[in-house]
Amino acid sequence: MKNNITRIAIAITLFLTxxxxxxxxxxxxxxxSNINNNTSDTSMNYNYQQDKKLALFQNMRKLWADHVIxxxxxxxxxxxxxxxxxxxxxxxxxxQEDIGTAxxxxxxxxxxxxxxxxxxxxxxxxVDLIAAAKVNDTExxxxxxxxxxxxxxxxxxxxxxxxxxWPKDTLVDMMQKHLETTKAEATARIKKQYGEDVKAFDxxxxxxxxxxxxxxxxxxxxxxxxx
Length: 227
What we know:
- There is one protein chain.
- The chain is mainly α.
- The chain has helices spanning 2-28, 32-37, 42-79, 85-107, 109-134, 138-162, 168-190, 194-222.
- The protein has 2 domains: 1-40; 55-226.
- The chain is built from 8 helices and no strands.
- Helix 3 packs across helix 7 and helix 4 (85-107) runs antiparallel to helix 5.
- It is globular and about 50 Å long.
């Protein structure tokens, strides 16, 4: 009886060993290049193409999420007079460069540089807006708000001229919503209405993801050959 059990155990061990070896051997023959070159598997090729689109959506979402996250961190630091406010502002300005760089593969270096300049102006005006709101300087607040509205319209115009799938009126509405939600966030923070502040940022974040996705979809539609 004991010998039978031993023989069975040895047989099971050999079976598992051979099976594991075969699986490992098969895995080593399946490389990324083999997968991508396997034109007979249309589903695999389809997923590869979809991944390129997904990558654009993910990258754009990260950039625009950074835009509102670093804006929020700056608002908190500036309103509370924290020593890291300037560092947050510097990182926020770097994000505008990153967004400009992201469109260069599709629209060229000059367009990327122009978008960066417009977005940096957007941030610098926001800094003025927060500073004026903190001390309740109505004159400076109204001036900054007017400049912010004008800058938003310029961003919308620039983008709509670059891509026919981004209608100007739609972009103007998106930019207006971005300004409105950000102002609500900053106002709540200044007034120490922290519950409203959190709700406002949720609105900011949800809207910027929607806007990011709309921009990505427009790029894919304009340049289908790249995807």
